[in-house]
Amino acid sequence: MPLGNLASLIHFLPELAVTATILLLVVVHVAGKNRRSAAPALLSLAGVGTTLLLVALQPASPGRSLFEGMVALDGFAIFFKALTALATIVVIFMSMESRELAGRSQAEYYIFLLSVLLGMFLLAASTDIVMLYLSLELVSIPSYLLAGYIKGRQSSTEAAMKYVVYGATASGVMIYGFSLLYGLTGTTQIGEIGRVLATGKAPLPVLLAAVMVTVGFGFKIAAVPFHMWSPDVYEGAPTPVTAFLSVGPKAAGFAVLVRFFYTVFASPDAVAGMWRTPPSIDWTLLFGILSAVTMSVGNLVAINQRNVKRLLAYSSIAHAGYMLMGFVLLTPVGLKAILFYLVVYLFMNLGAFYVVVLVANATGGEDIANFSGLGNRAPFAAVSLAVFLFSLTGIPPFSGFIGKVYLFAEVINRGVYWLALVAALNSVVSLYYYARIVKVMFLEDPKESGQMPVQAFPRAVISLLVIPTLLLGIYWEPVARVAANSVRLLAF
Fold first, then answer.
1. Distance of CA 400 to CAs 285, 331, 412, Å?
2. What tens digit of pLDDT does each residue of 252-277 get?
3. Residues 254 and 110 in one domain
4. Cα separation of 299 and 304, whole Å?
5. Is residue 341 in a domain?
6. Phi-psi bin for 489: left (phi > 0), alpha (psi -120 to 50), beta?
7. Distances from the Cα of 404 to the Cα of 34, 322, 344, 484, angstroms
8. What is the DSSP code string of 357-413?
């Protein structure tokens, strides 16, 4: 049941908290003269921390929506709000340590960062294609600015330009797909669109609209062939921004992908794993191929990369392919696997990027050669990075293994054996380039003499990322239960 505008405000407190923090940062930016001040970072931490608390206290109400049906109030949206808020907090910690951002306008940077967070909140909860599109743009436009935040650095400017061009193209194609759906159904509510399309009318226009919408969502999650922006943007952007883009917008992209297709194209009996329309299209095969191609391209191209950020960019593409395995059948179990994998991906991927920030600060570079002898110079950082990389590979007893088990199990249970085989082979390929970094850290002599001390604060943050990466590989049931409940509370 949709709530009116005024009645919705009491349920909109997390978004209002983010908005209030952004406005305070604007005041700090206008009034402040010291760019090196830690006040914007601390204010952002306080604002996002408060937001996370409000999200945790927010009651899930499946079937209810806010602002006349524009925004969902369900457990699925709450899950992704908590996930993206947590990712933002880690990235703020990372940004405070980054030398790339030193001496630049801190308040301005955090305004853009929190604007993306606000867009991700709305994107994960959007139940209307108009709100969905506006939310996607609110995520994208500040992301373009963050990618090119280091003014005067050619790689950063090039990254921002490519991001804008590819993003605008994907956005234009997606909104044309939305216009087709509106023309076919006469409504902008995705629930109503699903009910109208359930009649099976006009299969060809529906297919065309679905493909166009997939372009926009595929761009956001960096799925092949919509991934072209990712390597250059990840390499050129400041490392904290790269870490943020690899987790936050990707998670929000999967949230809207699942909500849209689950609502519009899933059968009423979604447990059966049936796609609803058009009946002549094998959606399982199409998205299975998309998943297989995405993970294969990401892993195979990553083999030849020398820049660690670019390597992790292709790794991020590969992991998008793994997560698409849970999307192929549109079953609650498959969607639960996606949510669980996103949680473990947050810890292991952000942890890897955090160590990259520390190494870049000490050596001035991000090539694999800069990690030579890290095991001798900074044992804590080297061991932590090894944990994150092996978890990304999916080796037991790390959390990445459990995440892949959930994904693999569902496609095997549903008889999509060929996709499970492709994913297993890709995991073996990924071991090669992840292990290459580990080899350089522990088996090669350092390029520079002396120790690389890791201060107490980054050591504490890295430890907080290592612990769940290890713990969720041993005791994962509570997180899996939360993921399952979030899918169950997805408004259908």
1. 26, 21, 18
2. 888 888 888 888 877 655 555 555 55
3. yes
4. 10
5. yes
6. alpha
7. 46, 8, 10, 16
8. HHHHHHHS--BGGGGTTHHHH-HHHHHHHHHHHHHHHT-TTSHHHHHHHHHHHHHHH
Is 312 contained in some domain? yes
Say which residue the tokens 């983010």 belong to: 18
Residues 6+ apart with CB under 8 A from 472: 343, 344, 347, 399, 402, 479
Q: How many CB atoms lie within 10 A of CB 242?
A: 29
Prior bond of 40 cis (ω within 30°)? no
Please state, rounded to an integer, the average pLDDT across all residues of the chain. 85
Paired tokens of 233:
């943007």
**Diameter over CA atoms, the chain:** 70
SS3 category, 79: helix
Are 149 and 183 in contact by the 8 Å Cβ rule? The answer is no
Task: Calculate the CA dihedral of residues 370, 372, 373, 379 and round it to 10 degrees.
Answer: 60
* pLDDT tens readout for residues 162-221: 888 888 888 889 999 999 888 888 888 888 888 887 776 657 788 888 888 888 888 888
Between CA 257 and CA 221 the distance in angstroms is: 9
Domain membership of residue 57 as a residue range: 1-269
Q: At what angle do helices 75-97 and 456-471 cross, to 10 degrees?
A: 150
d(Cα 469, Cα 390) in Å, to the nearest integer? Answer: 10
Among the listed residues 346, 353, 297, 295, the one whose alpha carbon sits nearest the alpha carbon of residue 325? 295
Judge if 61 and 147 occupy the same domain: yes
User: Which pLDDT tens digit goes with each residue over 310-351?
Assistant: 888 889 899 999 999 988 877 888 888 999 999 999 999 999
Provide the β-strand partners of residue 301: none
Amino acid at 26: V
User: What is the Cα–Cα distance from 300 to 30, expressed in whole angstroms?
Assistant: 47
* Token pair 């990690």: residue: 371
Q: Which of 235, 269, 303 is the last residue of a domain?
A: 269
Question: Under the phi-then-psi rule, with left for phi > 0, alpha for psi from -120 to 50, and beta for the rest, what region is 398?
Answer: beta
